[in-house]
Write a structure and sequence with these properties.
single chain, about 375 residues, alpha/beta, Rossmann fold, 2 domains, seven-stranded parallel β-sheet, 13 strands
């Protein structure tokens, strides 16, 4: 009798395509390469956001109506009630379409871990974010999160700093089921482009509040009075996001806002300086991608990247709580020889990091370990 094909069910918190989805896509493609059957569960009460377009050839899609967790106790209770029908439907579906492993993407996605408990299915919970205020975790919702995190078969963090901050946030708990797996990084070929005239400064990513983009735009606008530069933002999801950024600096000659593009290598090739001004980050892939492309990187110190990088060596770290820190870093990088030196060191570091990153082996060992126990 032939062996049954292994079945992995992914549960995601959004239909949009952001950094955590890029990691999930890499994970799904690895699982697909093993010959496993893949299904992804997506919230059907949200408009299509780009994820379906790149995932249809990789996995079957199951749409359910559910919302993300987080917020005060009233919202926590409301979400629990709202998600109950989706959980029942998912559990029924899982019993009819036996899953070997359920994988939940990000800490706000609790549908998967609860369905895993009801169906006694091994569960992987991959947390990408830091425990910041943007998710509005109350004491009650934090207790709920802690309970399900401890229950989950395997909890994955993407940086040591992130794990320690979450353990502190959740009341000093130490997760014996946790493992740190650094994110995979796409290989970006460096292009030694010559940019005449303006110094090209850029950002790639979402426009959410945590990214702190007004700080970057306003700082660049001030510097433009002294230096010839152009700021490019990539990642606007819609016209409203683009308009909000453009309103901060309505100078079409020195500032431009663009939608997200898959041709990320071309974006980096057009930059001299890449800036990530976020209030908080874990292990942002865009930093390592920009470094591979030979771009000088400025990023905030509120990031897991401080575990592996050094200020003034591979990149420049700035403090988002100190307004002048970004301005000072950008002024230093106006010196072409200085930024090229930082970029060269960053490129060597990123290329070595990509070679040494064992994401494929590490993540497959997690899946295979669970599958073997579930046989």
């Amino acid at each position: 009798m032939p062996e049954r094909t292994k079945h992995i069910v992914f549960v995601n918190h959004t239909r949009e395509l952001h950094g955590s989805e890029q990691v999930m896509l890499a994970t799904m493609r690895l699982c697909k390469s093993q010959g496993w059957r893949l299904t992804i569960v997506l919230p059907s009460n949200k408009p299509e956001g780009g994820l379906e377009a790149v995932i249809r050839d990789t996995a079957e899609i199951l749409y359910l109506n559910y919302k993300n967790s987080g917020g005060g106790w009233l919202r926590t209770l409301a979400v629990e009630i709202y998600n109950l029908p989706a959980r029942i439907r998912l559990c029924r579906w899982l019993r009819n379409n036996k899953a070997d492993v359920i994988y939940s993407n990000t800490s706000v996605t609790m549908l998967g871990v609860k369905a895993a408990r009801w169906t006694q299915t091994p569960h992987i919970w991959h947390w990408h974010e830091l425990p910041t205020e943007e998710f509005g975790w109350s004491k009650k919702s934090v207790r709920l999160l802690r309970y399900w995190a401890i229950y989950s078969t395997r909890l994955l963090f993407i940086a040591k700093t992130q794990k320690e901050l979450w353990e502190k946030k959740l009341g000093g708990v130490q997760f014996c089921n946790a493992r740190i797996v650094y994110n995979p990084v796409r290989e970006i070929r460096a292009v030694n482009a010559v940019h005449e005239g303006s110094v090209r400064i850029g950002y790639v990513g979402s426009f959410m509040d945590r990214k702190n983009l007004p700080w970057l735009v306003q700082t660049a606008a001030e510097l433009a009075k002294e230096y010839k530069l152009h700021l490019c933002l990539y990642g606007a999801q819609n016209q409203q996001e683009a308009a909000e950024m453009q309103a901060l600096w309505p100078d079409d000659e020195q500032f431009s806002v663009h939608a997200f593009t898959e041709d990320i290598a071309s974006v980096y090739s057009g930059l001299d300086i890449f800036v990530l001004p976020s209030w908080s980050e874990t292990m942002p892939l865009v930093v390592l991608e920009a470094m591979q492309a030979g771009v000088c990187v400025i990023q905030t110190c509120c990031s897991g990247m401080k575990e592996i990088m050094h200020d003034g060596e591979e990149c420049l770290f700035v403090d988002p709580h100190t307004k002048e820190s970004l301005r000072n870093a950008l002024i230093r990088c106006m010196d072409v020889s200085y930024r090229e030196r930082i970029a060269a060191r960053g490129r060597c570091f990123a290329e070595e990091w990509v070679k040494q990153n064992e994401y494929k082996r590490n993540i497959l060992s997690v899946f295979n370990g669970m599958i073997s126990k579930n046989v």
